Structure formats: structure tokens, C-alpha cells
Amino acid sequence: MSIGYYRLPEGIAADIDEFEGLVASFLAGDMAADVFKGRHVVRGIYEQRKDRSYMMRVRVAGGLLDCRQVRELAELSRVFGGGWLHVTTRQDVQLHDVAISDAPEIMRRLQQVGLTSKGGGGNTLRNVTACPYAGVCPHECFDVTSCANAVTESMIALPGSYTLPRKYKIAFSGCRADCAYAQVTDLGFIAEVRDGQAGFRVLAGGGMGARSRAADTLLEWTPAAEVVRVAESARLLFDQHGDRNNRQRARLRYVFERMGADECRRLFDEIMCGLSEDAASGLTALAEINAGVRSLPEGLTGPVLEDRGGAVVMSQRQPGLVSVLLHLPLGVVASGDLARIGELAGEFSRESGVRTTRAQNIMIRSVDERRLPELVAGLRELDADVLTAHPLERFVVCVGAAVCRLGICETGDVAKECAKALAESGVKRETLAAMQF
Fold first, then answer.
1. Of 126, 157, 195, 270, which sits 20 to 30 A from 87 (CA to CA)?
2. Per mean pLDDT, which range of 26-40, 62-76, 285-299, 364-378 is the poorest?
3. Beta strand extents in 108-237 (DSSP E only)
């Protein structure tokens, strides 16, 4: 099974060296805190509520991590952080309780395993998400992983991806069930096959939050070969027309509200026509993608999960293989447990890795169903119960005021109280386990 990962741009090492100098200046008192904040946030580093404590958000394109990356993240948390990690709703992984003096060393160790925190915060291109079942779901049109990687590789190398009016989010879904939530993202791609060719319906201007908005159709269909040009054209549209004066109305969805979808489409087409193919290329796996296209599924059929042998699993489209869902209530996992998950994935997954999900969980995929009892036994040895569905599984939360300086309430405590009420309501476990992406 071919699994690809995004490649870091050549300038990452130099950027880390530059940041190390900025840290030294800040710690020496030669740089004001507000100036330093502007430099560390775009590198995915945020101050926590506890003084001199920071969070680092690591970019995980499409939620895809190999075993070495999983183990290194766990080790970095153990050595430099608080011994726990947080899986986010955009499939990133966050390290907490980090000293800013250690951040450059953490960055270098992340680079050694093909990861970076750059663009994890601020007015930047954020992590490109994808359906966690990409490549294994029986109902997908084709595997969108390569498309998510191509967009990531191309755009994180562009200086303009770090000076946008506000954050810019992109999502790829492999079918109309839209497990990646493309319909409520700045730029969303939903796979469709036409005349045997892989492509996407493209949506733009969606988003959640206080003024949630469903995305408008930007392109009824475009071939998969165009995904990088589309993403770059939408970025330029946002860069040129986003509101840089009012942060509260700076997202791409407000551009669509202010100018209207028709005018945005016109401007987008104009920008895209002006981009040369070489200026935004990078999808090298097109032949492989087109070779793997499947007939367009009828209806809205997403992945089907079932309880088997004490674990929630999905039977893959590859005969005899299953994906195993690991429950991380509130997205939290201890470093020791994560390290062991990485070891088990290396032993049991033919992909030799894991996928994070937008529901803040982890999946071990491509497991021989005959070895499922062995994997379940190994997972039962973890300190946390990652196999049992729980009402808390139905909630996604940020870290909240307990950790974040921007937090205004204890989100985890609120979710726990809601989950407790749900548990006492008598809802069946099968209901809680259904459709957990």
C-alpha cells in the first residue's frame, strides 16, 4: 500500500536558526514581548496561562504520521513538555508546557523526522486536513492523501502563506459524505469522478465560529491535477481582498459575504488564468490517483464502524484489513501511551503509522483482521482506555482557560459535565460509537 508524506521546504533549517536568535534576544531582554509574539505565533508557538510556558502546534498534513514521528512526538513531550499531547480538530498534534528556550531544539528534532510547527498559528496557511479514511474507505471516489500533501508542500514554501489577513484552512474529502468537513472550510475539495478522471467539486468561504457559514461552490468540478493552482489562486484572492483592518471580519468567508459569490468566482477565475502551470504545480501522483478511481457512490454513505472484539473498527476496501479507532476523550493522550501506540502501529499496521482524526482521535489502519485480537490486547495494556466508546467521545474541545491565555472558560470541565448527563440518559453504546470520524 503506497502511503506518502509531505516534504518540508528547504528553508526550514534556516528558519529555525533565525528563530533561535530571536529567542536569545527575547530572553536577554533585547526584544519586547509583543514583538516576539508576532515571531513565535506564526511558527505555531503560543503562550500558555502559566508564565514562561508555551504550546507548540505541530503540522500533521492529512493527519498522517509514521511510527517514527509518533514516537518522537511522545519523546519530545516527555523530555521537554508536560508529558501529555493534544490532538486537535484539524488533525495537528500539540505539545504543552514547553520552555521557549527549548523550542529551537524541539524544532530541529521535528525536522529530523519530517515535521514542523511552522504555520501552526497566526495569519497563515494552517494544516491541510483530509478524511482520515482516505485510501481505505469502501465508499470513497479515490485516495485524496496525495492531493493534501501536494498542496501542503507547495504552499508552506511560499512566504505569502505566512502574511495573510487571517488564517487560511483547506480540507480534502474523498466522497460526498465529507468526513473532512470541506463544506465549512475556507477552501474545501470534495472528490468526484467524471469520465474516469479524478477531480473535485471545490467550495470556498465556509467556516465555523460565531458567524458560521456554509461554503459556496467555487468550481463545479476541476481535475485533481489542478488542486495546487486552485489553492494558490484562492490564497491570492484572500490575500488581495481580505480585511486587514478588522480582525473579526478578516476570514475568507467575509470576503464572500461582502463581495458576493459571483464576484469572488470572477476574481478567482481571473487570478487562476494568470497563474502559469509551473507556478503552482506539484501533484506528482496523478497517474496513481487516476488508476485508483472508483465509481461515484450513490447517496451519502460514509464509513461504517462496528464493534468487533472489544474495539470499534471499519472493514476496509482492501479485503481482510480493518481500521481501528482509538478513543482520546478531549483529544488528550499521555506521552507514554502515545509512544506505545506508535510501537503497536509499527507491529500491526501495514502502513506502519497512524492517522489523527478531526474528532481528535487516532486510528491504526490496515490491520490484518486475523491479528485484531493481538492488537486489542496490546491496547488494553495502555494506561488509558482507548477502546471503549464514551459519551465524552461526542465532544470536541480546545484546551480552554486551564492552559490557554485566550481561553475564557474551562472547556474540558464543561464537556465532562455534558458527557455525564448524556451517560446518565441511557444512550446505547452503539449509538455513541456510530459515525465517529
1. 157
2. 285-299
3. 129-130, 170-173, 187-194, 197-204, 216-223
Question: Which ranges constitute the DSSP H helices of 224-334?
Answer: 227-241, 252-259, 261-274, 286-291
SS3 360: coil
Residue 423 to residue 416: CA distance in whole angstroms = 10
In Å, what is the CA distance from 370 to each residue of 304, 318, 348? 19, 14, 11
- What is the rounded CA–CA span in Å between residue 152 and residue 400? 28
Coil vs helix vs strand at 128: coil
Which residue is associated with the grid cell 501533484?
283
Distance CA 164, CA 422 (A): 41
Contacts by 345-349 with C-beta closer than 8 Å and gap 24+? 345/67, 345/70, 346/67, 347/378, 348/374, 348/375, 348/378
Q: Is 85 helix (H, G, I), strand (E, B) or coil?
A: strand
Average pLDDT over residues 160-184: 96
Residue with cell 454513505: 301
* Antiparallel, parallel or unpaired: β 353-356 and 64-66: antiparallel
Grid coordinates in use for 101?
A: 528556550
Average pLDDT over residues 54-58: 98
- Give dist(CA 104, CA 95) in Å, integer: 14
d(CA 97, CA 56): 9
Q: Round to whole Å and give the CA distance between 338 and 104.
A: 23
- pLDDT at residue number 2: 45
pTM higher than 0.90, yes or no? yes
Extract the C-alpha cell encoding 103: 523550542
Question: Which of 301 and 16 is assigned the larger pLDDT?
Answer: 16
Percent over 90 (pLDDT), the chain: 76
- Kindly tell me the sign of the dihedral angle through the C-alpha atoms of 351, 325, 171, 333: negative
Task: Provide the b/e sequence for 19-31 (b: ≥16 CB within 10 Å).
Answer: bbebbeebeeeeb
How many of the other CB atoms lie within 10 Å of CB of 212?
10
Q: What is the mean pLDDT of residues 105-132?
A: 97
pLDDT band of 6, cuts 50, 70, 90:
confident
Give the separation between CA 38 and CA 120, rounded to whole angstroms: 13
Residue 321, pLDDT > 50, answer: yes
pLDDT at 436: 47
pLDDT class for 294, splitting at 50, 70, 90? confident
The SS3 assignment for 372 reads helix
CA distance 243 to 110: 34
